[in-house]
Amino acid sequence: MDQVKETLQKNTSILDPYAAMVPALVDLAQKAGVNPGLILAAVGSVAMLILLVIQGWTILLTAITVLYPAIHSIRAIESDGKDDDKVWLTYWMVFGLFNVAETFFGFVFYFIPYWDWLRLVLFIWLLLPQFNGSKVLYETVIRKLLDQNKDLIEMWISKVSSAATEVKKQGLEQAKAAASDPTLIAQGVAAASAAQAKINEASAEDAAVHPSEDPVVAE
Q: For residues 101 and 122, what is the distance between their CA atoms, to the nearest angstrom?
């Protein structure tokens, strides 16, 4: 038992400086006869366990579909080869398209029995190099759809770009018109004058209530 306790204290000693910032943990560690880092680790473990019970599925799905690919994507960026870059870029594109589809048609997907498990299996198939599902899905489905609808996609991109430019232009014109509108300028000046009058009035009232008590120096 003492050996287990000693091992735990050794492994959690790195947390001692952080636990020392919380007096309650320090007091509890002194009463228990252990280092504060062990108490902090215990509290963190309990909190993590509660979080896993409440949001365990969401955490698992995020770890598999986001964190794991993110780590491998960073390794691919740092590596000299380009093949792994293409693999993970393809995954993220499929992941993005899937999220867009789920955003607009998620209510349809959730009518499918055991959809959460099917979704997890689908992402595992997309991720694992043994299957290379993202590449297969891109080459067999997505690329064909993009090639067939290339002109339509370019047209919509052009429309969205034109609409954004027009909205920006109209916003600038309205801002210029508002800045040069004499009525608005007059209203602004009147508001500033009224505010200054209020300030002067308040200063005068304050001076009347608290007259100066500076002593008069006789000559």
A: 14
